[in-house]
C-alpha cells in the first residue's frame, strides 16, 4: 500500500488559492474577478489556515476547490475568452484600417447573458428578495451617475429605469414601512413578501470624481451589470404578482431618454420624479381599492389568543392602518424641498402630491388648490399662506410614517425648531440607551409630563422660588399695607363683632408675642409630663423596620459576584468577554445620559436667564412707570 | 525713350566718384574689353573709362526692355530698335552691350530684328505711332497685345531675347550673399568678373535721398548690384500686383461673355443615329436582382433598414421574463458549494440622523479623539461624525458615500466567508443555576468578635472540641488561649520559637494542645475547662510508658521524646518532642492518640507520625516523593493523606501502601481539609484555586473553584453543617455550602454563600488560617493583622 503523502487529502485539497484558480481557469485576474462577481463566488475562510494552505501560514485568498470546478463549466467563461479574441481582432482591424471588417465585427460583439446565473444564485424568488438590499442601494447610486469612462450611459439609464419601476411597485403595493433621513441618504425599508428590504437613496448629488485607489468604478460596474439583470427579473415577478403590466407604461413620454434629458441634469431628475406621480397601467381592469382580507387574521382567531398571536394581530392591524396613513391628504411640495423621497413616501401611504408646475414637470394640481391639506416647506418663512392648509417641514412626513400615526403638526410648523429625528431602525439589544424623545414616543404619558415640565411647571417653580423673591416681598408688603389700611378703616367705621374679635386676636399676636411664648412653654411642660405618663402606661407603637436598601443591594451584588465566579472554566473567557461588552455598553449609555442631562440643564439655565432678564427689564419698566405716575 | 535717357544719366552721375579706386584692379579686364570694343566699335575709345558703367547702363536698359516684354510691350523693344536705327549717337551704348555678348548675341539680335520685321509686317500700322511716345503707345497696347500672342513664334523669340538680355551674370540662380565677401559679384558671358559697384555709406544715401527726386523709385538689382530706376509702367505693374489685380492693365474684366457652348437643350439630336432598343427596355439582370430581393424581403431573409434599426433598438438592453415560477419553488440546479450569504449591513441608529438628539453630537473631546484615530478608523466608536442640520434642504451629499458602496462591493466579492456559530446569550446564562444562599442558612454572615492580643501575625488557630475555648499560635512566639464567647484571653504561653501550628486534640476526654514551635512539638495542657479532665490529662502525660521496642536509628536521629522542663511545666507544657528540623504542621488523628507532623526540610523523613499513648514515633515513608506540604488523617478509615507540591497521595496505614494519587494540576498546594464523612477532599492552592475532590469518583478534581482573587491559604470543612470556608491572601474568608448527599448518584452541591472581608492587609498577607466552631456555624479566621475574628 502506498503511504499517503502530506496534504493529499483533507482540508488541503478542499481549498485552492487564487493563483492556482487562475491557472486552472486560464483566465486573467480581471476576467476572474468579473466571473467571481457575476457568479457570486467568494473566498472562504478555512478552519485551519495552515493546513488549507499546505503548510504555509501567510494569509492567502482561498477558494473552495468545488467552486472553482463549478466555474470551469460556466458558459460565460467562453464569452470572456471571446472578449479577448474580439479585442485582439478588432484591434488588428483598426491598426490596418480595415474599417469594413471592423464594423462587421462590432456588430458581432459577444454579448454576455446572465439570466441563468440569476436563477442559479437565487433558486427561489425569496432568496432574490433577501439579497435585494445591496442591489437596490448600488443601483440607486448608479442611477444618479453621469456618463463616465467606465460606466456607460446605457448602464446608468437602465439603473434609472429599473429603480423607478421598483419604486412604482413599492407605491402600488404599499409595502413601505420605515423611512429615515440619515446624513448619508434616505433609508427606506419595505416589507415585500415578508422580507425586509432596506435601501439607501443618496442625497443629491452623490457623484464626485474619485481616485483609483479610493473607488474603482470598474468593479462597481460589474456588480451593477449583474444587479440590473437581477432587479429586472425581480421587478417582472413583483409586477405580475400585482397584476401590473411589465414593463410599466407611463403617460406621456416619461423615461424616454431623449437628448434633452440626457443633457440637462435637472430635467433628468425632474422627469424621474415626475414618473413617480402617475398611476401605473393595470392588466386587470378591476380597481383594487378594497383591502385584501388578511387570511392570517382568521387563522389567528381560530388559534386562540396566546401572547404572540395577539401581538401579531396588533401588528397586522397597525400595518393596515399605516398603509392608508395619508389617505385623503393632499400635499403640495414647495420647490426647495427634495421631492423624490417625499413623493415616494406620500404616494405609497395613499396621499396625493403635487408641486410647482412652472418649475418641474409632472405636477397634478396647483398651489392655489384649496383642497390641499399640507404644504411642505423647507424655508424659514413664506410670503403667501393659505389658511386652509398646514405648512409643515418635511420631517413631519418621515416622523409620521415612523410613528405610524399622524402627528400633531405644531412642532413642525414653518420656521419652527424641529424635534430630533429618530431612527426607526434602532435595535433595543444593540443600543441600550434610549433618548428621552423616544421614551416619550413609547409612553404617551411621558409626552405630557415632559412637555409640562418643559413649558410650565419648571419655569413657574423657578420663577416662584428664585426669581421673584424680591418681587414677591414687595408685593407682600404692599398687600399687607393695604390690608392694614383696610382694617383701620374698618375699625373707624365699626363693623360686626366677630370681625372685631378677630382683629383683637390679630392685634394680640402683633403686640404680645412674648406672652404667647410663655404660655406655650407652660403648655409644653404640661404636655410633656402627660406624655411621659402616657408612655409609662401605654404600649409603645412599634417602629417600622427600616430596610437599608443600599446594603441589601450591595449584599445582592456581592452574592451575584460570588456566584459569577462559579462559571465553568471553559466558559470563563466568554463570560468575561460578555461582561466586558456589557460594561462598555453600560458605560456608553451612562455617558450619553450624562451628556443629555448636562445639555438639558444648560438649556434650562439659558431659558431661565433669558426669562429673568426679561422679567427684570419688565420690572424696571414698571418701576419707571410707577415713578412717573407718582411724580 | 526719355526715361531711358534719364536712367543713363542717373547711373552715370554717381559712378565716376566711386569708380576711380577700382580702375587699377580691373585693368586686365578692361584690356580685354577694350579689345572687343576695338573689334566692334573702334570709334568710341574716349568712353573707355566708362565702359563698364555703360555696360551696366545698357544692362539696365535691357532689363527695362525685358520688363516691358513681360508687360506685353512689344513697343519698348521696337522703340529700342528704332532708336538704334534712328539715333545712333544716343544709343551707341545699347549697341555696345549687344556687341559685348557672344556671337550668339548677334544671332539673337538678328532674330529679334527679324521678329521685329515680322511684327512690323503683321502690324504695319503700329510702327508709326510707336515712334512717338510710350505713354501714347500704352493706350493702344491691349489691342496690339492679342494679335502678337496668338502666333507662338514671336512669343518664343521674345522670350529668347529676354533670356539673352537677362543673363548678364552667369552665376546662375544662387544666393547672392555668397559673393558678399568678394569684390566681384559674378561672371559675365566672357567669364570675366563683374565687379561690384562701389557702395555708398549712409550719409551718401541720405544725401541722395534729399537730392534725388527719383530716389524712391530706385531699386538695386541683386544680380549685378546696379541700381535701377523703375519706370512708371513698372510702378503701375507693382501697384496692380499689390492690389491683387491681374497684372496686365489691358485685361478687361468686364468684357462681354462669349458663350462657346450653349446651355439650351437642343430638340433635335446632334447625331442622326436612332437609340438602341435596350435603352427602352428594362434590364433583365436588374429585374432578376430586384425580384430576388423582393423574394428575400417576403421570406424575411432580408430586412429593410428600418426593420434592422428597430431590431437593434429592441435588442439593446436585457430582456426580462418570468424567471421564477413561484415564490418559494426551488428548481434543482447546480449551485456553488455550501453557499454562505453575506450578512446585511447594520441599520443606522439615532446618531446617523440628520437631526439627532443633542447628546449624540460630538463634543470637543470626542471630536478630538475621533480625529486622532484618523489612521486607524476601525478603532473609532462611530465611523462617521454625527452632524446636525437645521433643515433638510441644508443636508449635503455624504462625501464618503461612494467609498462606502465600493467597500461593500469589495466585501461581497473579496471577503472570505465562513459559517460561525455566534453565541447570542446573556452573560447570566453562563452562571450555573444554584440555589439562593438565603435557602441555605445557617451560615456566618457578620463579623461578631475580634480577638486582639497578638503582636505578630497569627499563624494558626484551633478550637476546643466542646467549642468553649480557642487556641492560637503566632509569630510573636506565644500561644494564646481564648474564651470564645467573651473574647477574653485566658492564658498566654510563651515559647522559644515562632509558633507555626497549633492543634487542639479532637478527643473530648483529653485536654491537650499540640503546638509546633520551631523544631519542637509541645504537648500542652491548657488547664481550661473541666478540672477533672485537666487532672486526668496531666496524669496521663506524667508517666511515660516503658519502651520495650527498640527504635531504629533513623527515627532516633529524627525525634526525641522528653518530658518538659520544670519552668515549662508551669506554663502547662507536658511533653516535648524535639524534631531534627523545624516543624511546619501538626495534625491530630480523630481519636486523639496519633498525631502527625510535617517538616518540609526533612527530605525523606519529612512526615512523622507520633503515638501519644506509647510515646513512639514512626516514619511512614522511606523515600521522599516531593516536598511535603501538609498531611491529614482520614476521619474514619486508616488512611493518610500526604500533599506534596503538586499531588496528593493517599496511603493505607494498615497495609502500608499507596491507595490513590490525586492530580491537582496546580502549581503549589497550600492546605487541605477532608469532609467529616471522608469521601470528599478540599484542597487549597497558592494559585488562587480550590479543588474539590470526590474520592470515589476520580483522581481529578470534581470541581475547581476560583472564588478568591489571591493565593488561598487554608480551607476547612464544618464538622456538622454542610459548610466549608476558605481564607486567602485577598483578606477574604469565603463561606460556601458544600452538600454531600448520601445518594451516590448525586454529585455534591457547591454554592458560594458569603464573602467575609474584614481582615486588614499586611505585607501581602491576608487571612492565614480558618477553622470552624465544632458545633455552631461559626468560623474563626486568623490574619496577618494580628487578630482572630469570629464570624457568626
What integer value in Å does the Rg of chain A equal? 38 Å
Total count of strands of chain A: 9
Given helix and strand content, the structural type of chain B is alpha+beta
CATH topology category name of the largest domain in chain B: Methylamine Dehydrogenase, Chain H
- Order of strands, main sheet of chain A, comes to 7-6-8-9
* Share of β-strand residues of chain A: 5-15%
Query: Shape of chain A, please?
Result: extended
Most residues in contact: chain pair: A-B, 118 and 88 residues
Helical proportion of chain B? 25-40%
Low-confidence stretches of chain A: 257-262, 286-295, 447-469, 495-515
* Gap from first CA to last CA of chain B: 159 Å
So, the CATH homologous superfamily of the largest domain in chain B?
YVTN repeat-like/Quinoprotein amine dehydrogenase
Averaged pLDDT of chain A, please? 81
What's the CATH architecture name of the largest domain in chain B?
Answer: 7 Propeller
Looking at the structure, what is the overall shape of chain B?
Answer: elongated
Euclidean distance between termini CA atoms of chain A: 127 Å
Oligomer: heterodimer
Main location (chain A): nucleus
Family (chain A): Belongs to the pescadillo family.
GO cellular component, one term (chain A): nucleolus
GO molecular function, one term (chain A): RNA binding
Amino acid at each position: 500500500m502506498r503511504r499517503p503523502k502530506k496534504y493529499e487529502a483533507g482540508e488541503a485539497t478542499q481549498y485552492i488559492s487564487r493563483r492556482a484558480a487562475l491557472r486552472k481557469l486560464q483566465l486573467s485576474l480581471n476576467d476572474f474577478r468579473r466571473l467571481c462577481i457575476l457568479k457570486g463566488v467568494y473566498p472562504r475562510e478555512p478552519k485551519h489556515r495552515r493546513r488549507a494552505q499546505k503548510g504555509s501560514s501567510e494569509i492567502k485568498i482561498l477558494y473552495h476547490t468545488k467552486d472553482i470546478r463549478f466555474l470551469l463549466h460556466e458558459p460565460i467563461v467562453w464569452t470572456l475568452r471571446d472578449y479577448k479574441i474580439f479585442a485582439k481582432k478588432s484591434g488588428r482591424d483598426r491598426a490596418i484600417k480595415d474599417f469594413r471588417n471592423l464594423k462587421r465585427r462590432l456588430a458581432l460583439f459577444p454579448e454576455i447573458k446572465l439570466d441563468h446565473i440569476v436563477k442559479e444564485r437565487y433558486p427561489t424568488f425569496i432568496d432574490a428578495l433577501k439579497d435585494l438590499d445591496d442591489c437596490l442601494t448600488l443601483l440607486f447610486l448608479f442611477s444618479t451617475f453621469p456618463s463616465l469612462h467606465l460606466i456607460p450611459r446605457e448602464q446608468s439609464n437602465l439603473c434609472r429605469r429599473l429603480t423607478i419601476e421598483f419604486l412604482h411597485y413599492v407605491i402600488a403595493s404599499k409595502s413601505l414601512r420605515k423611512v429615515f433621513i440619515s446624513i448619508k441618504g434616505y433609508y427606506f425599508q419595505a416589507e415585500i413578501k415578508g422580507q425586509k428590504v432596506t435601501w439607501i437613496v443618496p442625497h443629491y448629488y452623490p457623484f464626485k470624481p474619485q481616485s483609483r485607489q479610493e473607488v474603482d468604478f470598474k468593479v462597481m460596474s460589474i456588480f451593477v451589470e449583474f444587479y440590473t439583470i437581477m432587479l429586472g427579473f425581480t421587478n417582472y415577478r413583483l409586477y405580475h404578482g400585482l397584476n401590473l403590466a411589465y414593463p410599466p407604461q407611463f403617460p406621456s413620454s416619461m423615461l424616454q431618454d431623449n437628448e434633452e434629458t440626457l443633457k440637462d441634469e435637472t430635467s433628468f431628475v425632474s422627469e424621474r420624479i415626475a414618473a413617480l406621480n402617475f398611476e401605473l397601467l393595470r392588466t386587470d381592469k378591476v380597481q383594487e381599492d378594497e383591502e385584501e382580507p388578511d387570511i392570517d387574521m382568521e387563522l389567528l382567531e381560530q388559534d386562540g389568543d396566546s401572547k404572540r398571536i395577539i401581538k401579531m394581530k396588533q401588528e397586522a392591524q397597525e400595518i393596515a392602518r399605516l398603509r392608508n396613513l395619508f389617505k385623503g391628504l393632499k400635499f403640495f411640495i414647495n420647490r426647495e424641498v427634495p421631492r423624490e423621497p417625499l413623493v415616494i413616501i406620500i404616494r405609497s401611504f395613499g396621499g396625493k402630491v403635487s408641486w410647482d408646475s412652472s418649475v418641474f414637470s409632472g405636477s397634478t394640481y396647483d398651489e392655489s388648490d384649496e383642497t390641499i391639506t399640507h404644504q411642505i416647506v423647507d424655508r424659514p418663512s413664506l410670503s403667501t399662506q393659505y389658511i386652509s392648509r398646514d405648512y409643515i417641514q418635511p420631517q413631519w412626513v418621515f416622523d409620521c410614517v415612523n410613528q405610524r400615526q399622524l402627528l400633531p403638526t405644531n412642532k413642525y410648523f414653518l420656521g419652527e425648531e424641529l424635534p430630533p429625528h429618530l431612527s426607526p431602525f434602532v435595535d433595543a439589544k444593540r443600543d441600550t440607551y434610549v433618548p428621552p424623545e423616544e421614551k416619550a414616543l413609547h409612553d404617551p404619558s411621558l409626552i405630557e409630563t415632559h412637555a409640562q415640565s418643559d413649558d410650565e411647571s419648571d419655569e413657574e417653580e423657578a420663577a416662584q422660588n428664585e426669581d421673584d423673591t424680591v418681587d414677591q416681598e414687595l408685593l407682600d408688603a404692599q398687600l399687607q399695607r393695604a390690608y392694614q389700611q383696610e382694617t383701620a378703616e374698618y375699625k373707624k367705621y365699626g363693623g360686626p363683632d366677630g370681625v372685631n374679635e378677630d382683629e383683637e386676636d390679630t392685634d394680640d399676636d402683633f403686640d404680645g408675642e412674648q406672652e404667647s411664648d410663655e404660655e406655650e412653654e407652660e403648655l409644653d411642660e404640661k404636655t410633656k409630663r402627660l406624655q411621659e405618663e402616657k408612655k409609662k402606661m401605654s404600649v409603645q407603637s412599634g417602629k417600622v423596620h427600616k430596610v437599608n436598601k443600599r446594603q441589601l443591594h450591595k449584599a445582592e451584588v456581592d452574592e451575584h459576584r460570588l456566584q459569577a465566579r462559579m462559571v465553568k472554566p471553559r466558559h470563563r473567557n466568554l463570560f468575561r468577554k460578555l461582561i466586558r461588552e456589557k460594561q462598555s455598553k453600560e458605560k456608553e449609555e451612562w455617558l450619553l445620559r450624562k451628556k443629555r442631562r448636562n445639555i438639558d440643564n444648560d438649556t434650562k439655565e439659558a431659558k431661565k436667564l433669558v426669562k429673568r432678564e426679561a422679567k427684570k427689564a419688565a420690572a424696571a419698566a414698571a418701576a419707571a412707570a410707577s415713578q412717573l405716575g407718582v411724580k | 525713350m526719355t526715361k531711358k535717357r534719364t536712367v543713363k544719366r542717373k547711373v552715370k552721375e554717381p559712378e565716376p566718384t566711386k569708380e576711380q579706386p577700382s580702375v587699377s584692379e580691373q585693368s586686365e579686364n578692361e584690356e580685354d574689353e577694350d579689345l572687343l570694343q576695338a573689334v566692334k566699335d573702334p570709334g568710341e575709345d574716349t568712353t573707355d573709362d566708362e565702359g563698364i558703367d555703360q555696360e551696366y547702363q545698357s544692362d539696365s536698359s535691357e532689363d527695362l526692355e525685358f520688363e516691358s516684354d513681360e508687360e506685353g510691350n512689344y513697343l519698348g523693344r521696337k522703340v529700342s530698335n528704332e532708336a538704334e536705327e534712328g539715333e545712333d549717337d544716343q544709343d551707341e551704348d545699347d549697341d555696345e552691350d549687344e556687341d559685348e555678348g557672344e556671337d550668339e548675341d548677334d544671332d539673337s539680335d538678328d532674330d529679334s530684328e527679324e521678329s521685329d520685321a515680322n511684327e512690323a509686317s503683321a502690324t504695319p500700322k503700329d510702327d508709326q505711332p510707336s515712334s512717338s511716345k510710350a505713354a501714347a503707345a500704352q493706350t493702344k497696347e491691349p489691342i496690339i497685345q492679342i494679335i502678337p500672342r496668338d502666333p507662338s513664334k514671336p512669343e518664343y523669340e521674345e522670350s529668347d531675347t529676354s533670356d539673352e538680355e537677362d543673363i548678364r551674370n552667369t552665376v546662375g540662380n544662387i544666393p547672392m550673399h555668397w559673393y558678399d565677401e568678394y569684390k566681384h559679384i559674378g561672371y559675365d558671358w566672357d567669364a570675366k568678373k563683374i565687379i561690384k559697384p562701389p557702395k555708398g555709406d549712409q550719409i551718401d544715401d541720405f544725401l541722395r535721398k534729399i537730392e534725388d527726386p527719383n530716389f524712391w523709385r530706385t531699386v538695386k538689382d541683386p544680380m549685378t548690384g546696379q541700381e535701377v530706376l523703375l519706370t512708371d509702367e513698372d510702378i503701375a505693374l507693382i501697384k496692380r500686383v499689390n492690389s491683387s489685380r491681374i497684372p496686365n492693365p489691358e485685361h478687361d474684366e468686364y468684357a462681354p461673355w462669349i458663350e462657346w457652348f450653349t446651355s439650351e437643350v437642343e430638340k433635335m439630336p446632334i447625331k442622326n443615329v436612332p437609340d438602341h432598343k435596350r435603352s427602352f427596355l428594362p434590364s433583365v439582370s436588374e429585374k432578376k436582382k430586384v425580384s430576388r430581393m423582393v423574394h428575400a424581403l417576403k421570406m424575411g431573409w432580408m430586412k429593410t433598414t428600418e426593420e434592422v434599426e428597430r431590431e437593434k433598438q429592441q435588442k439593446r438592453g436585457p430582456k426580462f421574463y418570468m424567471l421564477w415560477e413561484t415564490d418559494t419553488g426551488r428548481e434543482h440546479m447546480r449551485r456553488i458549494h455550501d453557499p454562505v450569504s453575506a450578512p446585511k449591513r447594520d441599520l443606522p441608529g439615532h446618531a446617523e440622523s440628520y437631526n439627532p438628539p443633542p447628546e449624540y453630537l460630538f463634543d470637543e473631546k470626542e471630536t478630538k479623539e475621533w480625529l486622532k484615530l484618523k489612521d486607524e478608523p476601525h478603532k473609532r466608536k462611530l465611523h462617521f461624525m454625527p452632524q446636525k442640520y437645521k433643515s433638510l434642504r441644508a443636508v449635503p451629499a455624504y462625501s464618503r458615500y461612494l467609498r462606502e458602496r465600493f467597500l461593500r462591493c469589495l466585501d461581497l466579492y473579496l471577503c472570505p466567508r465562513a459559517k460561525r456559530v455566534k453565541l447570542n446569550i446573556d452573560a447570566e446564562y453562563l452562571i450555573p443555576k444554584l440555589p439562593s444562599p438565603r435557602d441555605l442558612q445557617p451560615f456566618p454572615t457578620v463579623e461578631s468578635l475580634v480577638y486582639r492580643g497578638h503582636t505578630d501575625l497569627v499563624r494558626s488557630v484551633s478550637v476546643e472540641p466542646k467549642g468553649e475555648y480557642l487556641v492560637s499560635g503566632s509569630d510573636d512566639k506565644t500561644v494564646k488561649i481564648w474564651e470564645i464567647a467573651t473574647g477574653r484571653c485566658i492564658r498566654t504561653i510563651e515559647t522559644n520559637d515562632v509558633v507555626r501550628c497549633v492543634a487542639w486534640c479532637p478527643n473530648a476526654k483529653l485536654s491537650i494542645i499540640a503546638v509546633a514551635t520551631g523544631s519542637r512539638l509541645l504537648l500542652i495542657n491548657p488547664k481550661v475547662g473541666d478540672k477533672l479532665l485537666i487532672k486526668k490529662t496531666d496524669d496521663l502525660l506524667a508517666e511515660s510508658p516503658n519502651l520495650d521496642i527498640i527504635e531504629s536509628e533513623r527515627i532516633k536521629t529524627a525525634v526525641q521524646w522528653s518530658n518538659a522542663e520544670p519552668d515549662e511545666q508551669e506554663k502547662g507544657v507536658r511533653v516535648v518532642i524535639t524534631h531534627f528540623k523545624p516543624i511546619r504542621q501538626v495534625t491530630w488523628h480523630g481519636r486523639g492518640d496519633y498525631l502527625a507532623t510535617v517538616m518540609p526540610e526533612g527530605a525523606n523523613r519529612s512526615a512523622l507520625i507520633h503515638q501519644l499513648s506509647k510515646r513512639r514515633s514512626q516514619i511512614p515513608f522511606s523515600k521522599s516523593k516531593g516536598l511535603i506540604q501538609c498531611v491529614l488523617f482520614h476521619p474514619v478509615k486508616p488512611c493518610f493523606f500526604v500533599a506534596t507540591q503538586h499531588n496528593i497521595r493517599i496511603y493505607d496505614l494498615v497495609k502500608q501502601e499507596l491507595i490513590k494519587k490525586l492530580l491537582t494540576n496546580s502549581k503549589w498546594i497550600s492546605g487541605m481539609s477532608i469532609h467529616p464523612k471522608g469521601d470528599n477532599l478540599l484542597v487549597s492552592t497558592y494559585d488562587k484555586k480550590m479543588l474539590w475532590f470526590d474520592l470515589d469518583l476520580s483522581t481529578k478534581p470534581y470541581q475547581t473553584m476560583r472564588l478568591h482573587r489571591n493565593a488561598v491559604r487554608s480551607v476547612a470543612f464544618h464538622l456538622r453543617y454542610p459548610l466549608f470556608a476558605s481564607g486567602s491572601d485577598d483578606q477574604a474568608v469565603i463561606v460556601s455550602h458544600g452538600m454531600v448527599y448520601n445518594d451516590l448518584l448525586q454529585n455534591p452541591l457547591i454554592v458560594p454563600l458569603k464573602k467575609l472581608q474584614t481582615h486588614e492587609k499586611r505585607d501581602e498577607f491576608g487571612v492565614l488560617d480558618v477553622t470552624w466552631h465544632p458545633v455552631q456555624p461559626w468560623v474563626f479566621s486568623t490574619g496577618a493583622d494580628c487578630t482572630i475574628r469570629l464570624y457568626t
